[in-house]
Amino acid sequence: MTAFRSNRRTQLALRASGIALAGALTVIASPAFAQTTPTAAAPQADDQANADTSQDIVVSGFRAALASATAKKKNSEQIVESVSSEDIGKLPDNGIGESIARLPGISAQRSAGRANIISIRGFGPDFSTTTLNGRQQTTTNDSRAVEFDQYPSEVLAGVDVYKSSEADLTAGGLVGSINLRTIRPLDVSKRILAVGARGTYVDQKLQPGTSDLGYRVYGTYVDKFANDRIGIALSAAYTDEPYQTRDWNAWGYGAYGPNQYGMNGIKTWSESDKLKRFGANGTIQVKASDDLMLTVDGFYSRFVDRIDQRGFEMPLNCGGGCGHDQILSYVADSRGLVTSATVKGTPVIENYANDRVASTYSLAGNLKWDNGGSTRALFDASWSRTDRKDDRLETTAGLGRALPNPTATLSYQLTDKGPVFTSDYNGASSALVLTDVEGWSGTPIQAGYDKIRKSKDDLVELRGEIEQDIGAFVKSIKVGVDYTYRTKVLTQDEAFLSPPGGATTATIPSNLLLDPVQLDRGLGPILAYDPRVLVAKGVLSYIPNPYGASQAYDVTEEVWTPYAMANLNADLGSVRLTGNIGVQGIRTSLTSKGATKPTVEDSYWIVLPSMNLNFRFSDDFVIRFAASQQIMRPRMDQLTNIVNFGIDNSRTPPIYVGSGGNPLLRPYKATAFDLNFEKYFGSKGYIALQTFYKHINTYIDPSAFDLNFDYSGFPKPAGNVPSSPIGQFSGPVNTHGGHIYGIEAAGTLPFDLFTKALSGFGLTGGFGYTETKVKDFAGRVTVIPGYSKYVGNLTVYYEADGFSLRGSMRYRSGFLGDFSLFSGGLDRQQVLAETVYDAQVGYDFPAQSALHGLSLYVQGQNLTNTRSATVADVNGAAFPGAWLKYQTYGRRVVGGFTFKF
């Protein structure tokens, strides 16, 4: 049996880790009114959007939302999937991530039970972009990927996912781009005032002092003035909701005996998460004249997330080097996996705090000129900023520091739901003290560690464009230029938390102790306290670690994107051809600075052609063909110049050896082809078969080992230097990628298409199958993060006479998932397949009722408490039963109302 890949544990010592699915959404936050606002795939796309959909707010609920999404897909010149709002500013799901994850070919990875990491066509979030009303946005993490928790679903009117490229969409994306849309007030036919509230219950409460209850409140106001020449839309939402996670982890797997492998160590945690978020959005539109329209958008979100993690950790297999661990006995199966064992060792009781505060700001203005004739022009300017502070605080307790003998005997048995344990250790004992239990730290002695990462992400985008109608085969020519200037700055402060006065241990005052936390899996109660107060109360000393400052970085990107596009519209006999052919030229200049490293600069050009052809038949049948070259820029933290390199004089001749970021990276690049067959039933429904192929010309191996890395772009160190700039490097490097291809089936089918007797019933959903092959830097076949071979979702619904009922499921097969490490990096693990079920029932009071305008609903989310689990990786594939992570989030029940005046 090949040895399992071992996941390195975090150590306190820190030694130098058819659109369809608008409706597939079952968890509908508000079952009331359908919003069919115009699409804003990019600021310049408003005219096309206005032609695509009606501008009225229709009292038709879920079915109207599906019809709106179907119309958008049908009329679009690109391959697109959409989610439309059922109510004013209310998407048909608990959150944006859940809504997007129900679209064909799209899946989500859950974090704390929330679907906030999105994969499109088998690629993770590092391969797609997200915009707000067509404008690029800053993010709350180290990458470019938007975490959808930033954006309250209540302030949005819809979401569009573009799977094919178009020359005037300049945000990029190797597999697609996601555009979040807000309301355009001048497109709404009458004044709107809507309010709503909901309460949430989670069926597991894991820690004393935490809550299993939460709530949301939200409101929207839309109105027009001055003879409908001025419009205003205001939306705001506040969330205070709990998330409770049962979390178990293994350190990895090592040899217990010849070709027999068992867990190296374990962690069992209870995590209680309190999420508070305020979001607000405002839009003002002014029709200054019949030719000139001004639109100003503003968005603000403040996100406060406090996570308390309390748990039990114990080394099991360190060869005696971790708390004198001793394997007393074990049983292995025929594959060599140890399924049960008894081990002596030294447990650690952990009380951690993981707090995030993030504020996102966005301000934009759009000036559009249209003389009603053959010429149109626009100018768009936007600014986005995200300020983030992450504070990861770890403290540990045990019976003493580096005791000479083991302090516990633990036995485990693997089951189909992870391991279960028996232990003789009293994790709630009054004899426990704060200390470095395993004796891993040097000076100072650590009873804890604090890491504070602060980032500021700023982005300015300017765009100018002019379009001229031509007529005949070429309907119009559009030319423009987009300019973005982005800076991402990160600082890092770290500190040892040590017993005062040079002591080896610190006693926890009894007045700081909380009620013990009862762990599951047989590990019993453990000591609980708030680690945030220990330094302020003088229990531990705060000793700064200067190493943290060396990890600061400052990355600046300046990108010019001129583009030209010909829009097509011609009759080919009985078939109408629409679409576009275009090209982008992208000039990128990059500057990467570090706190301790000299500045590195780089620049390059990339040219990207694109074509979208749509053959529209008179019987509502559409064939689409798209071809393009696409790019996705590297993660911002991959572009840092935190490159530690020197000279290895032990070699003959001496060579450069280093590791870290790579400011000289080029973007991912692919040549993509799409072929779709779509049959529509008016705007009520559709069925579609969607095929795609992407040849990945350039890939980024995030952890390559390059023996021929060129150091000529870096400053030379002092003294004698190697004769050649070619040396050895470990980190992200470009490779020649591979390919990905697949097929998606999707549809929205109201059953009254078949018989009026089934009026009100229907279904919507999709299924995707994808194959991929990508090679790492060494030429070995590797797995693309976020790639699932199969994804699927289905919603069955009934809606009539104000009553609505729906049930939904979403499925994805196993994939390689990204998990954040204490170091700020990523740990990639094999995530197992999962299926999540949701349901909702609701009622809208009719027009003749005194309660007209009121909608009530009850939702059940994650009805089967579906686990999220990972297993060890053997030769690039998941190894069943070799558990690395097993999490459950509990079921959620949501009840609420909306009222539209």
- Please tell me how large the radius of gyration is: 28 Å
Number of strands: 49
* Helix content bin: under 10%
How many H/I helices? 3
Main sheet: strands, sense, barrel: 22 strands, antiparallel, barrel
Unreliable stretches? 1-59
Strand content: over 45%
Described by the principal axes of the CA atoms, the overall outline is globular
What is the arithmetic mean of pLDDT? 86
- Structural class category: mainly beta
In whole angstroms, the N-to-C terminal distance is: 67 Å
Multimer state:
single chain
Short key terms for the protein model shown above:
disordered N terminus; 901 residues; mainly beta; 22-stranded antiparallel barrel; five-stranded mixed beta sheet
Write a structural description:
Helix content is 3%, strand content 58%. It has 901 residues and is mostly beta strands. It has a 22-stranded antiparallel barrel. The protein has a five-stranded mixed beta sheet with strand order 3-8-9-6-7. Mean pLDDT is 86; it is low at 1-59.
How would you summarize what this structure contains?
With 901 residues, the chain is an all-beta fold. 3% of the residues lie in helices and 58% in strands. It contains three helices and 49 strands.
What is the fold's blueprint, element by element?
Blueprint: E1 34-35, H1 46-52, E2 57-58, H2 61-75, E3 80-84, H3 96-100, E4 106-111, E5 114-120, E6 129-132, E7 135-136, E8 158-162, E9 177-181, E10 192-202, E11 213-225, E12 230-250, E13 253-257, E14 260-263, E15 265-287, E16 292-315, E17 326-332, E18 338-345, E19 348-370, E20 375-398, E21 408-415, E22 418-423, E23 433-434, E24 448-471, E25 474-498, E26 513-518, E27 525-529, E28 541-545, E29 553-572, E30 575-594, E31 600-616, E32 621-632, E33 643-648, E34 655-660, E35 668-681, E36 685-710, E37 726-735, E38 738-750, E39 761-775, E40 781-782, E41 790-800, E42 803-812, E43 815-820, E44 826-831, E45 834-844, E46 854-861, E47 868-874, E48 877-888, E49 892-900
